[in-house]
Amino acid sequence: GIQVEQSPPDLILQEGANSTLRCNFSDSVNNLQWFHQNPWGQLINLFYIPSGTKQNGRLSATTVATERYSLLYISSSQTTDSGVYFCAVASNTNAGKSTFGDGTTLTVKP
Amino acid sequence: DGGITQSPKYLFRKEGQNVTLSCEQNLNHDAMYWYRQDPGQGLRLIYYSQIVNDFQKGDIAEGYSVSREKKESFPLTVTSAQKNPTAFYLCASSSKRDTEAFFGQGTRLTVV
């Protein structure tokens, strides 16, 4: 099946700093999502982005499908951004089956 | 209120017992999914269903069973054959296969 690798595994920032999270995948995809898991375990949708670039406030994401990676940018980070960020993909050859990466744990310090 | 409802939020099970986790959605979505999350790890797919009366095994289906008799409901049974059932279970739905998925708040299952 498709392999999904997220980096870095852990990231510690000072409030106000910017960060870039990366998601590499091993096959062509027709579905890619970014999620933020809060301390209570709830998965919050950030972006549905199988290709292209999207922005939502301080967050933006870019997926370069031909090179098999996606980037999540967080600008002017806040303590409420802390949590685990997951990338999930579904390959063209295994439609319907999303595979999650192991996540990036972000800690934003005041 | 539209969304995905999982119940209960916390569940305790004795060894050897079967237990059923509920997942209901009122989003009129065709596809539904069950995932398992262990501490410090990502989500792993247990079962998924793209249409009523049809479902497929995910990556870790052993010891679990599902049914999809109604579009809005996709219950998961954790059977006694599941050797290590203590985990966080998350249900999701999407309008069609491989479109944006939305998650419920999860059920924490503990074997006592």
Provide the residue-averaged pLDDT of chain A.
95
Rg of Cα set of chain A: 13 Å
**What share of residues are in beta strands of chain B?**
over 45%
Class derived from helix and strand content of chain B: mainly beta
Distance between the termini of chain A: 40 Å
How many E-type strands of chain A? 11
Overall geometry of chain B: globular
Low-confidence stretches of chain B: none
The largest sheet of chain A, given as strand count, sense and whether it forms a barrel, is: 6 strands, mixed
Specify the number of helices of chain A.
0
Describe this structure in words.
With 110 residues, chain A is mostly beta strands. Chain A has no helices and eleven strands. In chain A, strands 2, 4, 5, 9, 10 and 11 form a six-stranded mixed beta sheet that branches. A five-stranded antiparallel beta sheet of chain A has the order 1-3-8-7-6, with no helix packed on it. The model of chain A has no long low-confidence stretch (mean pLDDT 95). By secondary structure, chain B is mainly β. Helices cover 0% and strands 51% of the residues of chain B. Chain B has no helices and eleven strands. In chain B, the strands form two sheets. In chain B, strands 2, 4, 5, 6, 9, 10 and 11 form a seven-stranded mixed beta sheet that branches. In chain B, strands 1-3-8-7 form a four-stranded antiparallel beta sheet, with no helix packed on it. In chain B, strand 5 and strand 6 (54-57) form a beta hairpin. Chain B is globular, with a radius of gyration of 13 Å. The N and C termini of chain B lie far apart (35 Å). The interface between A and B is medium-sized, with 23 and 27 residues.
Short description:
The complex is a heterodimer of chains A (110) and B (112). Chain A is mainly beta and 110 residues long.
Descriptors for this entry?
heterodimer, A: 110 residues, mainly beta, six-stranded mixed β-sheet, five-stranded antiparallel β-sheet, B: 112 residues, seven-stranded mixed β-sheet, 11 strands, 0% helix
